[in-house]
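User: Can you model how coenzyme A sits in this protein?
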Amino acid sequence: MHRCFTRFADQGRQCSVRCMSSVVRKRSALRSAFPVLDVALQPIQRHVYEANLRNTHICLKKYSELKEKVRKGGGEKAVARHTERNRKLLVRDRLRLLLDDDDDFLELSSFAGLGLPYGDVPAAGCLTGIGRINGLWCVLIANDATVKGGTFYPITVKKQLRAQEIAIQNRLPCIYLVDSGGAFLPLQSEIFPDKNHGGRAFYNEAIMSAMRIPQVAVVCGSCTAGGAYAPTMTEEAVMVHRIGTIFLGGPPLVKAATGEEVSPEELGGARLHAEVSGCVDHFAWDEKEAFDCTRNIISTFNFQLPEEEEDTSTRGEEPRYSSEELLGLAPRSYSYSLDVKMTVGRLTDGSRFQEFKARYGTTLVTGFAKIHGHLVGIVANNGALSYEAALKGSHFVQLCDQRDVPLLFLQNTAPAAAPTLSTSQAEMNSNLLKAQASMMSAVACASVPKITVVIGGCHGADSFAMCGRAFDPNFLFLWPNARVSLTAPGHAGSLLSPDDDEEEEKQVETLNKRLEEESSAFFSSGRMWDDGVILPQDTRKVLRDSLDIIKQQRYQLSTEKQQSVLLRM
Ligand code: COA
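Assistant: Here's the modeled complex, given as structure tokens:
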């Protein structure tokens, strides 16, 4: 019996040694290193590189000016009113108390609200982003009450809905820091009635809960009228004594209706809502206590994060080329684009890249790489999206979808559509149309996560095939040099008939001027056609965070429910 057992044990050991060596082989096969890209800057490329660099520095100056404008929120007077008279913390200090590390906060659309027809609304009056709380990535939506009392402009509504959409698409918990006077009344018609207006945020809260996306509100200011539903519809709410108020109509309305004088605290303060109405679940004496309480609530979300997830910054080999060189690779215009593999080599682990169809359709570069250990499929423009390039793109996108590999699009599309000046060109263009439609379809239907970074131009239908905003990427970021418009500035002539009269020329000139103004990255970001402008040298970090964020949903333990948690007694 004993001998028999030993034999089995020996056999087992041998078998396990065999199995282990095959595991080691399999693992090393999976780990096998992709080829290193040889993409050092060549002397012949230097003049283009320098011209790009000069342009990028101009864009970075504008970037810094806008950052400073946003940092000031609603201005000195409003900040003083907020901190001294109302004794509240500023929105960024609130985030500091809540987040594990505020340097790690992936702020979204920070330039939203700048340069709009109705004026500048710094950060759209509401900070949004994704940060770690107790190790868990959460979407944060935080009103900035220094900007017109934290009221909702149309762009604020858009920003909040986009943040909720990100929470839904990536299944991230959502934390609302509520401090808002509700709708910005002069623009009520652009905020209230339509599907994607204010009410949609409440609708989303309900369906997000049913989708098991946990949501918590911290009431650290006013929640008036429509705003009162925001905390009441979250799954759990914390309210701060003397600072938080929730009511449908404030004291002036009560006075007007009944003649009764009532304080905000009596009408809808933290005591009333925690002890009598039950609209909130936790009472906090001050903001610090409220954020500590919120951190504890987040620990009950029942995610089990693997330990290795805690520090991802050192995961993966660093690229062999400096990320600072991306500043000179960011094209000032399409004709200043250098080989996109030079950009790829400054983003991927060890500058390694397993290229797919390297010799076919070379105006699109496709292949696999790792970014901080995350395997991704890269699709990058390297010229016009030709017939062959579009077929290759379609093939590669479907391949990544089949293998569940997230896609990274590096977008720099041609400035204008291909012209049709002869019948043979018309035939070529029809074929091109079919190939591009096929790629668009592959991109639209791919169920893997997609991230798009516009590193140059975002023009015409090519930009849809390269997963532009309408194609629903999980995240879409712009470099500061990016240009977003139907056709690039200087190419308006391609949109109008080629008549040679003076009137026509004037029209082209006016349109080109308009394209110049309306295509800048900051114009786009002010209107939230993207998730923010990022610095080229930060791209690898932003991609790492985005990929970590997308992956987190794997670690949630609870199962999907049919109903939302809403019934408060
Ligand atoms: N629409 C448009 N502007 C508004 C506004 C609203 N709903 N609520 C406040 N504001 C403006 C104020 O006019 C003021 O503008 P100013 O800086 O140009 O003077 C600014 O926001 C700050 O408001 P103020 O009242 O001075 O600050 P506060 O800190 O004392 O109070 C609120 C802020 C939000 C509590 C208070 O303004 C309030 O109760 N507003 C009305 C809320 C309401 O009834 N909303 C209904 C929406 S359906």
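A couple of observations from the model: The two ends are 67 Å apart (CA to CA). The longest strand covers residues 215-224.
User: Helpful, thanks.
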